[in-house]
Amino acid sequence: MRLFRNAQGKARWLLVITWLYVLWSLAPVLLAVRISFNAGKSRSSFQPLSWKWYWGDPDRSVLHDPALQHAMVNSLKLAALTMLVTVPLGTAMAIGLHRWRGKMSTASNTLMLFPIITPEVVFGVALFMVFTQVYTNVPMGFPAQLLGHITFTMSFVVVIIRGRLTAIGGQYEEAARDLGATRTQAVRLVLIPLLGPAIFASLMVVFATSIDDFVISSWLATSAADETVPIKIYSAAKATSTPALNALATLMLLFTLVAVGLAGLALRAMNRRGGEEGGAAGGLAGLSG
Fold first, then answer.
1. 161 Cβ contact list (under 8 Å, min separation 6)
2. CA dist., res. 112 & res. 85, Å (int)
3. DSSP letters for 102-161
4. Which residue of 92, 144, 145, 149 has the fewest C-beta atoms within 10 A of its own C-beta?
5. Which residues contact 256 (CB under 8 A, 6 or more apart)?
6. What does each C-alpha distance from 173 to 32, 101, 277 come to in angstroms?
7. Half-sphere exposure of 276 (CA within 13 A, CB side)
8. Which stretches of the chain drop beneath a pLDDT of 70?
9. To the nearest 10°, the Cα dihedral for 264, 269, 273, 274?
10. Residue of 283, 93, 115, 131 lying closest to 219 (CA atoms)
11. CA 192 from chain center: how many Å?
12. CA dihedral (142, 252, 32, 264) positive or negative
């Protein structure tokens, strides 16, 4: 057993199990990425490396297949618009709920968790019934998909922002108000910068959730014009397909990794800056007190 323990007496087998799990989880993804570089049509065996299914094939590559391009554009557009609408609304809602002092505030916090804990298939069916039986003036397809994604991801933003608000506390706003700032200025110049890391985290969660969603998008789609990348992969994988689908999925994975990497760098920079500003704000709070 000494081989599995370090000098501090901590079990090394926990680290081994963790890395085995990571490798087991990444293996299917890496296999799918590798097959996207096959020179032939096989999706079950490795072939010589080629960029054929990215841009080499004049008809069926991602660069030249209009159906694959349309699915990619739909996914990116849907995720971008969902972020632009959901994060500002969710941030404002989180601030309002955090400051709500009433008998119904606890109930509202519980209701915010329902979209998160509700099975997505149930949520998708419910949205389908709402848009077909209640809000019939909302067109099915992309408009309904956008509203569905906004409805589903709003709770994630509220929960993340509220957690950050609880950690920040109210002393920084109180110090700003004591030093002459209006309520709006205190929120805009003090609270929002302190919420920067949580806002970036919310953007990434909404982007990843929206671009990866299949259930809601498929229930609210009406035709091939509304297909996103998950819908396209699901519908084409059952039929005879080429590694172009793997190439499409690899590109979407690359977009997600780049976005998360940039967000991580921004979060690190904002955390360093937030520490400096937080120290200054703490000093102001102490002086005003």
1. 90, 91, 94, 95, 195, 198, 199, 202
2. 17
3. STTHHHHHHHHTHHHHS-HHHHHHHHHHIIIII-TTSPTTHHHHHHHHHHHHHHHHHHHH
4. 92
5. 207, 208, 211
6. 50, 18, 13
7. 5
8. 1-11, 102-103, 105-106, 238-240, 263, 266-267, 269-289
9. 0
10. 131
11. 20
12. negative
Sketch out the chain's domains with CATH numbers.
Answer: 59-288 (1.10.3720.10)
Give me 68's structure tokens.
Answer: 């694959």
pLDDT the model gives residue 285 = 38
How many residues comprise the chain?
289
Rounded Cα distance between 85 and 154, Å, is: 9
pLDDT at 2: 54
CA-closest candidate to residue 248, choices 46, 47, 35, 95: 35
Q: What are phi and psi of 216, to 5 degrees?
A: -65, -45
* Residues in CB range of 71: below 8 A, 6 or more apart: 227, 228, 229, 231, 232, 248
User: pLDDT at position 288, please?
Assistant: 36
Q: What angle do CA 215, 220, 221 make, to 5 degrees?
A: 100
Phi, psi torsion values for 38, nearest 5 degrees: -65, 145
How distant, in Å, are the alpha carbons of 42, 123, 229, 253, 272 from that of 234?
Answer: 18, 20, 9, 16, 43
CB 216 within 8 Å of CB 124: yes
